[in-house]
Amino acid sequence: MNGQRDLMGLVSAVVVATALFGCSRSPTTVDEVIERHTKAMGGRAAIEAIQSIEFNLHITDPKFEVDGTYFAARPGKMRIDVNAEGNHVFTEAFDGQKGWQWEGKGTARKLATEKATAALRHGVELPGKLFGLHELKRRGHRIELDRRQRIDGINYYVLRLTLNDGYLTTLYVDPKNWLITRRRDVRPLHVDVDPTPTTIEQRNSDFRTIAGVQFAFASSETDLQSGKVLETAVIRGVKINPPLVSSIFEKL
What we know:
Layout: H1 2-24, H2 30-41, H3 44-48, E1 52-61, E2 64-73, E3 77-84, E4 87-94, E5 99-102, E6 110-111, H4 114-125, E7 142-151, E8 154-162, E9 168-173, E10 180-187, E11 198-210, E12 213-223, E13 229-240
Antiparallel strand pairs: 1-2, 1-13, 2-3, 3-4, 4-5, 5-6, 7-8, 8-9, 9-10, 10-11, 11-12, 12-13
């Protein structure tokens, strides 16, 4: 009996050690990194339960400050209304097929340019709003694991994300918390204002749990070539699954 108990104890110790090793070892595949990140974000079920979202934002550029309300809904629509000094001054939206803008006067909308439409679509597809990183492959996008990169003392896991229209961006997963705290790509900040592309780094911070999912409540956009901060945004409120009618993405 003692021998049997010893054998069972040994087997249990091996099982526990194997499980601990599996949890503690460094990921070696893109799927392992995605899975660690997804768990840190709150898990697949919590992320996929978000069908619509509303962010109340305060946006600061070097020349102005505005407030914004950003709406997004599956399967991939968005709208942002911008207010300055209490007045509604701008709206842009993507209805799932095309983008449009309203520039603060009258009721007439104009179609966004092809590049502006693409930028709006990219914004809603990228993880951190509606969709989880784990959902992107089945949405037709490609994710590859690149060589790790050390930035400011953190040895990031680097994911190359290619959206299904060819747009390329790089996501940096912090191994301390498995969250995406940096993103880099070559693009204009606001393509219809200045179409000149530059290498922009977005930094995400102040993560908070809302409805079981982690959201970055602060972000900044920096021109890596000059070191200039191009824009910062702070989330002042989040609503999960607000009842949005589809027409808000189609008309003013």
